[in-house]
């Protein structure tokens, strides 16, 4: 798989996440893809649970901004160091950093995404 294709898919993932567009985000995954977000929590079926996942995001965040700070592409995968800035429904701002590892399927979609970050620390920043 070409590095350009992988980069385009990674960009689509982050863009749709930032836009809180569940349908566009789900299109980036194979039918049976799993996501660990964050790693340490039970895996989620990306396509099947996209609406519920984005429902939780929209309940917590008024605004979500993501930057791809560093992208490392190797073979059929990528690792991305990212920064997320949010405005919580509480009116408080929060910042989190993390690394997501993307495993590609030969179909040109993600098979698995594992994100390493501290979601509890971000939620504590925006708590009322």
How are the SSEs placed, and which strands pair?
Blueprint: H1 3-18, H2 22-26, E1 29-36, E2 44-45, H3 50-60, E3 61-74, E4 77-88, E5 93-104, E6 110-116, H4 119-126
Parallel strand pairs: 1-6
Antiparallel strand pairs: 1-2, 3-4, 4-5, 5-6
Give a summary of the structure in a few sentences.
This protein has 128 residues and is of the alpha+beta class. The protein has four helices and six strands; from the N terminus they run ααββαββββα.
What does this structure look like?
- The chain is α+β, with helices and mostly antiparallel strands.
- It has a single domain (3-126), classed as Nuclear Transport Factor 2, Chain: A (Roll).
- It is built from 4 helices and 6 strands; from the N terminus they run ααββαββββα.
- The protein has a 6-stranded mixed beta sheet with strand order 2-1-6-5-4-3.
Q: Could you say what the CATH architecture is?
A: Roll
Strand order of the largest sheet: 2-1-6-5-4-3
Total number of domains:
1
Derived from helix and strand composition plus strand pairing, the structural class reads alpha+beta
Helix content class: 25-40%
Main β-sheet description:
6 strands, mixed
Unreliable spans:
none
Mean pLDDT: 97
What would the keywords be for this entry?
6 strands; six-stranded mixed beta sheet; Nuclear Transport Factor 2, Chain: A; alpha+beta; 128 residues
């Amino acid at each position: 798989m070409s590095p350009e294709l992988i980069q385009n898919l990674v960009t689509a993932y982050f863009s749709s996440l930032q836009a809180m567009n569940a349908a566009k985000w789900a299109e980036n995954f194979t039918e049976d893809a799993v996501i660990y977000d964050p790693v340490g929590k039970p895996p989620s079926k990306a396509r099947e649970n996209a609406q519920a996942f984005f429902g939780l995001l929209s309940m917590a965040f008024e605004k979500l901004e993501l930057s791809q700070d560093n992208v490392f592409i190797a073979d059929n995968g990528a690792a991305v160091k990212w920064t997320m800035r949010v405005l919580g429904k509480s009116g408080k701002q929060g910042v989190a950093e993390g690394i997501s590892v993307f495993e590609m399927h030969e179909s040109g979609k993600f098979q698995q995404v594992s994100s390493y970050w501290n979601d509890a620390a971000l939620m504590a920043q925006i708590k009322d």
